[in-house]
Write a structure and sequence with these properties.
InterPro entries: 6-PGluconate_DH-like_C_sf, NAD(P)-bd_dom_sf, P5C_Rdtase_cat_N, P5CR_dimer, Pyrroline-COOH_reductase. The protein is about 55% helix and about 15% strand. The protein is α/β, with parallel strands linked by helices. Strand 5, helix 5 and strand 6 form a beta-alpha-beta unit. Helix 4 packs parallel to helix 5, helix 7 crosses helix 12 and helix 8 crosses helix 9. The longest helix is centred in the last third of the chain and has 22 residues. The chain is elongated. Bound molecules: NADPH dihydro-nicotinamide-adenine-dinucleotide phosphate and (2S)-3,4-dihydro-2H-pyrrole-2-carboxylic acid.
Length: about 280
């Protein structure tokens, strides 16, 4: 039964990223009976079904049932999975691919040239409804289907539309992979706090609350993050000593190099898969 606000939604591949989106959607009130998922790992799939009350099936069955199909397998298996799925897409559902690097032209070749395809680069904070997604729609995607994609991903975070598809690699470098950078910074701060004598428990609590506080302040403030940083730095004070040390050690260049490596991997992943 069609429901424009909550189309029947299938996930092909139910790993880390699918779990994050499904968990966020169900918490946001998306009816669990309108979500189905498939995965080769049957134990993990059953666990997902138990956790969120969604339905399960094999790839073909969930795709045939769906109005929107989210392709959430690893880039390395996307060609095999999509080619096998093609006979189950005769009803022309909207396809949303979340795979890093796999471009729209390749997806069209594998899925059918006239299929409506939205490329999406989400991130795992979708699980707690603070995700960030970049979206790019191909020319076969109708206005109503763009709205469907935006409603689904917008329910679990913010959404940015990109007209220029190659910018999806930059989105991957900023927000797709970005949560891992912040987790690494938190790991490093916890270790440094422990090294200075705090218990791991105290260092973890102080670090996590500081990360949450800084992000919340940045989100709600009417000044930029550079000004917020300066407001912590008293002249000749403690923060200045730390920031000067980061700058001397080339932290900004470190981020430039890391994020360039990330975007380049996204491009080379696609090339390695023979797109
Ligand atoms: N993790 C993240 O933060 C983000 C991931 N992405 C993208 O999301 C996609 C999934 O990533 P992620 O969730 O991390 O990966 P996972 O490996 O956690 O999930 C993929 C799932 O697909 C299953 N699978 C493999 N082959 C098939 C098949 N033929 N049919 C059905 N299911 C299959 C895998 O099973 P098995 O383990 O048994 O192989 C696995 O459970 C990737 O393309 C990635 O680029 C995008 C943004 C962020
Ligand atoms: O690491 C990866 O390849 C995936 C894509 C973006 C985040 N995780």
């Amino acid at each position: 039964m069609s429901n424009t606000q909550h189309p029947q939604l299938a996930f092909i591949g139910a790993g880390n990223m699918a779990r994050s989106i499904i968990g966020g959607l169900v918490q946001e009130g998306y009816p669990a009976e309108r979500i189905r998922a498939s995965d080769l790992n049957h134990d993990a799939l059953e666990q997902l079904s138990r956790d969120f009350g969604i339905g399960t099936g094999d790839n073909a069955a969930v795709a045939e049932w769906a109005e929107v199909v989210v392709l959430a397998v690893k880039p390395q298996v996307m060609k095999t999975v999509t080619e096998a799925l093609r006979p189950s897409l005769a009803h022309h559902p909207l396809l949303i691919s979340i795979a890093a690097g796999i471009d729209g032209a390749s997806l069209s070749r594998w899925l059918g040239e006239d299929q409506a395809i939205v490329r999406c680069m989400p991130n795992t904070p979708a699980l707690v409804k603070t995700g960030a997604s970049g979206l790019h729609a191909n020319r076969h995607t109708s206005g109503a289907q763009r709205e469907q994609a935006e409603q689904i991903m917008g329910a679990v975070g913010t959404v940015q539309w990109l007209d220029d598809e190659p910018l999806m690699d930059a989105v991957t470098a900023v927000s797709g992979s970005g949560p891992a950078y912040f987790f690494l910074v938190m790991e490093a701060m916890i270790d440094a706090g422990v090294q200075q004598g705090l218990t791991r428990e105290a260092a973890t609590e102080l670090t996590l609350q500081t990360a949450l506080g800084a992000a919340t302040l940045a989100r709600t403030s009417d000044v930029g993050v550079d000004e917020l940083r300066r407001r912590v730095m008293s002249p000749g004070g403690t923060t200045e000593a730390a920031i000067e040390s980061f700058e001397r050690d080339g932290l900004r260049d470190t981020f430039q190099r890391a994020m360039t490596a990330c975007a380049e991997r996204s491009v080379s992943l696609a090339k390695a898969l023979g797109q």
